[in-house]
Each structure stands twice: as C-alpha cells, then as structure tokens.
Amino acid sequence: MTIFASTRLITGDIRRLVDFYALVTGIAPSWPAPVFAEFLTARATLAIGAAETMALFGTPPARPGENHCAIVEFRVADVDREAARLAAAGIALVQEPTTMPWGNRSLLLRDPDGNLVNLFAPVTPEAIARFAGR
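^ that's the sequence the OP posted. Answer follows.
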C-alpha cells in the first residue's frame, strides 16, 4: 500500500519560507533539524528543507525557486476570510477568491520563493460531497 505522506519544498532561505507558511496556515512548524522544518496536518505534511540538504542526495536533484508547474494546496474553512487576513498581513494575491467550475472557492498567492499556493474550500454540494470524510 502506498500512502501519500508529504510534499517538500527546497529553499535558499529556510527561515523566510517557514515563517511565510506559518503565517498562511496558522500551523506552528516542527524543526527536526535546523535545516528542515515540517507543517503537520491531519492528512499530509508540508516539509521545507534548506538547499544544503540536497547534498545528502548526491547531485542536487532540486533547485530552489525553479518551480513553474506545481501548486501547494491547503483546504481552509473560508477562502474570503483568509483572503482578507492575508491582505491585512501584506501578502499579495495572484488570484482573488473565485469559485472554480469543479465547485471549490479558491485563491492563489505566491510564497517568497515563487511557488504557487492555493487556499480552497469546497462550496457546491458536489464538491462538499467529494471531500466528505477527508
């Protein structure tokens, strides 16, 4: 059996990125090592590693700040409330809250390394049913 466990972002400035995700998620990070932090949620973990951790894998397979195809997503209770909270904290939105054709209300922003971050909430009956029990 395979269980999706985490997504890891590699960064050149771990403190800056961890502070950003702590603000966006409201989750206190755990720091198993000074070069590695984790945000534990009920379903998965967002891990953040300093660029120097890539040396542990041999040839650096990941390079900070070069993501142009993935979106880090968090389900929230109220997208519009989160948009107002983040705007008050000075975080610019890439996309204002919008209801998507698949039934999620969503907003997009970028983390300090340029990665897209989506905060979403299922709002139609069909979308709510898809997330029931998850």
